[in-house]
Recover the amino acids of this structure.
């Protein structure tokens, strides 16, 4: 078992060594971003801190919360059934989650298509986990699905479900960032 772990670490090192060699190629369109981050901690397994993961999760949670609340408010105000309201809330959570990331990448001067690919790569798993947990808590909470906007239960269940989603999603983001994925991809455009 230790041999397999050591072999995996060696394979990661070989991959990153190839990354460094690859960074010296001036004909590669992303060569500057590779060379600027050749020693970046986010490229090494376990290199992500809990605070970095929490910030990435909070960023994701902000977009998800905007979408969730807006979707639930719209669906409830229009008298939609629970399933239609939940679908709208999930779609809007992904939309706003991606939009916040897209906005920050575009501010760094990256083209729209590249920024869109980065946003999808950075946020898809994080938003999906967050939405699964968030909507799961609301669906399982007795009476929460039938609560109206005027009910304390509506807002309380929503707040607690988002908090639980944050706690569960933070380790996922830590794992992804530690492997150079998720918000580690976004980070390279902020320099």
């Amino acid at each position: 078992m230790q041999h397999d772990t050591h072999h995996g670490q060696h394979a990661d090192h070989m991959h990153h060594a190839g990354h460094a060699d690859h960074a010296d190629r001036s004909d590669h369109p992303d060569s500057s971003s590779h060379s600027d981050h050749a020693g970046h901690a986010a490229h090494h397994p376990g290199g992500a801190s809990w605070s970095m993961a929490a910030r990435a999760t909070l960023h994701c949670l902000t977009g998800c919360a905007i979408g969730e609340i807006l979707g639930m408010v719209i669906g409830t105000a229009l008298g939609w059934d629970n399933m239609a309201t939940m679908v709208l809330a999930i779609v809007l959570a992904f939309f706003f989650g991606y939009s916040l990331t897209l906005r920050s990448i575009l501010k760094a001067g990256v083209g729209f298509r590249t920024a869109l690919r980065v946003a999808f790569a950075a946020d898809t798993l994080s938003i999906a986990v967050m939405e699964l947990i968030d909507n799961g808590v609301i669906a399982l909470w007795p009476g929460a699905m039938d609560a109206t906007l005027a009910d304390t239960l509506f807002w309380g269940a929503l707040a607690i479900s988002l908090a639980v989603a944050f706690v569960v999603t933070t380790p996922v983001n830590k794992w992804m960032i530690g492997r150079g994925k998720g918000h580690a991809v976004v980070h390279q455009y902020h320099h």
User: Anything to note?
Assistant: DSSP finds seven helices and no strands in the chain. Residues 112-140 form the longest helix (29 residues). The chain has a mean pLDDT of 77. The two ends are 39 Å apart (CA to CA).
